[in-house]
């Protein structure tokens, strides 16, 4: 769950920058938040969590192509949700639509990752628990997107990160509870990559990317001492006071008259 917390934190501190940015800077912060949320908090947590999944007497391996597709799905739906909410921050309807789309995408990411699992048996799912896992994914996406653009202080960001991480973890373990594996009649050759060999690589890459994102996002936010000032500075920036007459440099006309 630690990876989910760090990923959620990185996503939130990046999302704070989205409404304050324009042009390419806005795109960069959106991608940073999507990569942190989709790739770090959601996909990496799911992948690491899958390492603990075991079926007695069966060897588990993963196909890299579908595993990569599941990562792309997670990042893409996170980017879509963040973009929609950032563009329509005051619209409950757009928030709901973004949450549903992102939640369905998260569920699709999980079950695509499960489809990449190679096991010497047949994988089936309990429909009722699958539906519950999808509902949890939608609720988690709604909560995450709502929180992402409404946090005000550093304390709120930390609390929101814990809430989002708990929601992501809850969806993962609920979806895993829906999984049933029936061993095959004979010994089947299982192809693919051992997840244990990939886990250290995923952890190192994920934490490295998240550290860079957090460092970049926190650089400007903490200059004022709080997230509130950084967020509100562009809305309530006071105009510069007028320059007093006696402090203005003399014009050519005034110089002519004095001469």
Automatic annotation (TrEMBL):
Nucleotide-binding recorded as keyword: no
List the InterPro entries hit by this protein, alphabetically.
MHYT_dom
TM segment ranges:
31-52, 64-86, 92-117, 129-149, 155-175, 196-218
Classify the source by domain of life. Answer: Bacteria
This protein's GO cellular component annotations are: membrane
Keyword Kinase attached: yes
Q: Which residues form the signal peptide?
A: none
Molecular functions (GO terms): kinase activity
Assigned keywords, A-Z: Kinase, Membrane, Transferase, Transmembrane, Transmembrane helix
One Pfam family, short name: MHYT
This protein is called what? Histidine kinase
Domain MHYT per the UniProt entry, residue ranges: 1-182
The ranges of region (Disordered) come to 228-259
PANTHER family from the entry?
DOMAIN SIGNALLING PROTEIN, PUTATIVE (AFU_ORTHOLOGUE AFUA_5G11310)-RELATED
């Amino acid at each position: 769950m630690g990876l989910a917390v760090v990923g959620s934190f990185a996503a939130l501190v990046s999302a704070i920058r989205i409404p304050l940015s324009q042009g390419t800077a806005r795109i960069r912060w959106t991608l940073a938040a999507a990569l942190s949320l989709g790739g770090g908090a959601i996909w990496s947590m799911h992948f690491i969590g899958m390492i603990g999944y075991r079926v007695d007497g069966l060897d588990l391996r993963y196909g890299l192509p579908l595993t990569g597709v599941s990562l792309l799905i997670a990042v893409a739906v996170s980017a879509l949700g963040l973009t929609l909410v950032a563009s329509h921050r005051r619209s409950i309807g757009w928030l709901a639509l973004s949450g549903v789309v992102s939640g369905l995408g998260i569920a699709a990411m999980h079950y695509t990752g499960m489809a990449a699992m190679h096991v010497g048996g047949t994988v089936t799912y309990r429909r009722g628990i699958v539906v519950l896992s999808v509902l949890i994914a939608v609720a988690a996406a709604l909560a995450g997107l709502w929180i992402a653009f409404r946090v005000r202080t550093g304390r709120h960001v930390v609390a929101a990160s814990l809430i989002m991480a708990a929601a992501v973890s809850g969806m993962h373990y609920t979806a895993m509870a829906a999984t049933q594996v029936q061993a095959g009649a004979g010994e089947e050759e299982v192809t693919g990559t051992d997840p244990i060999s990939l886990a250290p690589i995923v952890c190192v890459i994920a934490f490295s990317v998240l550290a860079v994102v957090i460092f970049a996002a926190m650089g400007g936010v903490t200059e004022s001492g709080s997230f509130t000032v950084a967020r509100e500075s562009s809305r309530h920036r006071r105009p510069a006071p007028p320059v007093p007459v006696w402090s203005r440099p003399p014009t050519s006309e005034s110089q002519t008259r004095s001469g």
